[in-house]
Amino acid sequence: MNRYRFILGMLLLVFLVNGCYTQPPQTPEPLIIEVQVDKPVYRIGEFIVLTVRSNQDCYLALYDISTEGEVSQIFPNRYASDNLIRGGQIYRIPTQADSFDYEITGPPGIERVRAVCTQKNVNIVDPSLVGKQETFPRIYQTSPQFESSLNQKLQTLPTD
After folding, report:
1. Which residues contact 62 (CB under 8 A, 6 or more apart)?
2. Contact indicator for 29, 55 with CB cutoff of 8 Å
3. Which residues contact 93 (CB under 8 A, 6 or more apart)?
4. I need a surface site. Which of 5, 33, 41, 117 has the fewest CB within 10 A?
């Protein structure tokens, strides 16, 4: 009888201790995006192809900052509006089926592409600053203004 009481007492103790244990909160995996170009250097008149991969599903926006400091949204655009990318997949932009290309027009210098991925499809740039008629809408801000406002906007977005 004492043996059964002992076993019953141990089982109750195990259930009690197990019921009090909680899992530590899981920290979400950071969203990581990789963007590459198909060549290290381009000549005026050549076409650029970007490859993009994210570790999670997200909504992608690509901004071109020209050698003269002009900013354009090159993806999504008039011909490719679906900007949801699936985590772990490699995307080619533009795809071979797309009806647009990214041509290097000059003047010579360093041109940059800024990639932004968010887990919800949100407007990162104030719509009043975005051209409406172009295939690749122009952002009516200087490069430093764009970078500053983009960074401020990204800091105000919820982390989830």
Report:
1. 35, 50, 52, 73, 74, 75, 93, 113, 114, 115, 116
2. yes
3. 49, 50, 51, 52, 62, 75, 80
4. 41
State how far the alpha carbon of 119 is from the alpha carbons of 32, 54, 57, 87, in Å: 11, 11, 7, 11
Q: What is the pTM of this model?
A: 0.76
Within 10 A of 55 (CB to CB), how many other CB atoms are there? 14
Q: Which two tokens stand for residue 139?
A: 């952002």
Are 138 and 71 spatial neighbours (Cβ–Cβ below 8 Å)? yes
pLDDT tens per residue, the chain (160 residues)?
Answer: 565 555 555 555 455 555 555 566 677 788 899 999 999 999 999 999 999 999 999 999 999 999 999 999 999 988 888 999 999 999 999 998 888 898 888 899 998 999 999 888 887 777 777 777 777 888 888 888 888 888 877 777 666 5
- Beta strands 58-65 and 84-85: pairing type? antiparallel
Q: Taking the CA atoms of 33, 66, 69 and 112 in sequence, report the sign of the dihedral they define.
A: positive
